[in-house]
From TrEMBL, chain A:
It comes from the Bacteria. This is DUF340 domain-containing protein. The keyword Membrane applies. Keywords: Membrane, Transmembrane, Transmembrane helix. It comes from Halobacillus shinanisalinarum. The chain crosses the membrane at residues 6-27, 34-51, 57-77, 89-111, 117-144.
TrEMBL record, chain B:
The keyword Ribosomal protein does not apply. Keywords: Membrane, Transmembrane, Transmembrane helix. This is DUF3100 domain-containing protein. InterPro entries: DUF3100 (IPR021450). Pfam families: DUF3100. It comes from Halobacillus shinanisalinarum. The chain crosses the membrane at residues 12-29, 35-57, 69-88, 108-125, 161-184, 190-215, 222-246.
Amino acid sequence: MLKNIQEWTLLLLIFGVVSILGNWIGYNIFPVEAVPGMIILILIALAGLILQKLLPIRIPSIAYVAIIGVLVSMPWMPGSEQIVAMTNYINLLALTTPILAYAGIAIGRSWTDFVKLGWRTIVVASFVMVGTFLGSAVIAELVLRMQGII
Amino acid sequence: MSEVQKNLWKDWRLHALVLVIVVITELMGTHEFSVGPGVILLLPMLYAIIIGLALYFTPIIKEKQSKHAEPLIVLGVTLLIAKIGVIIGPSLPQIIAAGPALLLQEFGNLGTIFIALPIAVFLGLKRESIGMTHSVAREPNVGLIMDKYGFNSPEGRGVMAIYIFGTVFGAVFMGLISGFLATITPLHPLSFAMASGIGSGSMMAAASGSLVAAFPSMETEILAFAGASNLLSLSTGLYMSIFIGLPLTEKLYNVLNKRKDNRTGANTGRGE
């Protein structure tokens, strides 16, 4: 467990440094401003990872991370304004770029499987994704309009 | 993350490469071009996945780096989810107000069945099409199909095919189509934000990222709704498939197949 926490912390720190640099280059946010927010995000992620190991309920760690993130930033929570203000310096897309860079390196190994799939699969897969996306958007649009939100 | 993977932080080669990729792609920045009335956005994250993939086929990346990168995606996603959590928190009153839309749009995930299944059957796919189109085929759904039909069944091959496509191209694909569809259709960006949460962290990030880039003034709302919807998909998606998606796919498949058999039967009848 301790070994795990150490490993997660070091890896999240590496992620944090890379993201902060991306945040600087891509979104012009000076690293000094972004550091406190990044530390908060790393602590939330760590808390979620540790809770998942400690609690007997089998739900994915990202669910814990999300719940903790929501809890500490709810308007009713003391100190939430500072947390929101500090994490606002971290651009969401600056976090996704390194994730997708790692993903690109990792999926190289699935590439041969992908090539074997054949064109029919690619056509169907495209419609699977568009179908889900458009289906959800149409329903959301109808309900949001009925509620008068949009 | 499992306990088996240890000392991944020591793989300096991998982290240095990712750092270089991030610096290069962020320097390249966002580019957009119009296709008819829609806009396609090219974002640094999309270049990042393509450069990463391309590097895999060069000697710079060894098998080891590729293996090490896999658990790091999960860890990176926890950081992303933490960020989305702190976006959802302040928007909670708003999200509760929009709750019904958020809950009901989960049924929209069934859209894949009505749109993709007829196409799969039309292309001549057999029972593979059930595994392929009953859902977007992320991890829980792969588990469901394997559990129900077995790994070596046609349904199992189908779901794996879509799973692999999603893994390789999901984020790029969603990133490209979400901005495009949101600008080409009259639907509201918030509806698309809710639709972005399809149960995969990277696809949601890509889809909502493109939406933010296309509608920068609505950034917080888009990210809050996309994040909340993704959480909902993660927690309800599997049950949706078990109780509605998969039975519906089976039924529709039988209907489509019967019609197809009748038609081909009539054709051969005439031919003889």
